[in-house]
Amino acid sequence: MKVIICGAGQVGWQIARQLSGEKNDVTLVDVNADLVRRASDTLDVQGVVGFASYPDVLERAGARDADMLIAATHSDEVNMVACQVANSIFSIPRKIARLRAQSYLDAIYSDLYRRDHLPIDVVISPEREVAEAALQRLAAPATFDTESFMLGRAQLLGIQLGEDCPVLNTPLRQLNELFPTLRAIVVGVRREGRLFAPDPGDQLFASDQIYVFTHSEDMNRALEIFGKQTKKQERIVIIGGGNVGLGVARALEARTDRVRAKIIEKNRAVAERAADGLERTIVLNGDGMDMDILMEAAVDRADAVLAVTDDDKTNILAAVRAKQAGCKMSIALVNDPTLAPLMGPLDIDAYINPRATTVSSILRHIRHGKVRAIYSLGDSEAEMIEAQVLSTSPLAGRLVRDVEFPEGVLVGALMKGDKVVKPTGDLRIEAGDVIALFAMAKDVREVERLLQVSIDFF
Q: Which domains does the chain have, with CATH numbers?
């Protein structure tokens, strides 16, 4: 499969790394020669320097026989024009664009992206994706990561284990005996920086980060079993009133359960815009790192603070200050993945990586049709894959225990009809079932074979 990726920034580079690692023919286009050189030197990709919207640049990138174009430059307009050129001149079948400006994303203008207008097959909005990720973190406050699967009936939870976890030093197979009705499986463990799929005999230790795949109805029980308290979030302080903060506040206002939210925004014009766009949310104009303004927002009595400005250091420091002031939980938006190891020592409960969120969203839209969802874990070290089992698949008609899954692959759950079922050895996988698989990156190709679909492209 031949793919052109426009934009060699964090998102473009990560998508290029992922797709080239799966033996696809990838060409990266960027106006910055240094970024293109870095990608060419470190990845198995071709690089072209130039404006991604110029027809001659796309032609040099191989647009004549490309199967897909992913436009992820920093300019919405360049991304849109690149998709138009890709369609009108080169007839590239599938085009994905990342758009940030909210005006382009307004539902009343959705006709803009029709094939006979501006031919973009999938529009990705990082701000909306990040706002949704923030809401999911707030919904599961005891986790450092969370993602929905199986039409919202299942959840992947990232849980940091503490010394008070009641199931430490217990082999995982014993969890089934201790909690036979719990519909949850530990699918991944990160220990001393290394992520792996655990064996039934493996034990859990304090400071482990684990990924648990659970039925949504059992989410609170699963959290309690792993030593986490679940509490409803009623008072939330949002630091940053831009598109992400505004999106979260609007979603909170739309909820039926009463949530009292306050926004702190340093820029007066942005603060006024946020205040005009919200009904019940209080907007304070001030610096989110200023202790006086934090106390004015009553951060000491807040259930959670969400720091989502466009500056990583501001988000980290504001989250630390809020925790010191007495806030029960802090979530920080962090673009630079190298800062992630600081979250634990600084007592920041969870962080959101916009790059990983956007990459997962793009992957979800470019995978093959029977693969319904993809969530990238860590630094693309593993994936949670949700797919429908085809009648031609080696999985169809076999018991779970009889399938020779690779060492790095675990079944999280099966959905039969509209019912999510915990995978046991004597459970039969039928054609038409939806299966959720945790797979280390090296084992994704074997998952393709088992599913009898190419986890590539439409």
A: 2-124 (3.40.50.720), 130-225 (3.30.70.1450), 235-352 (3.40.50.720), 357-451 (3.30.70.1450)
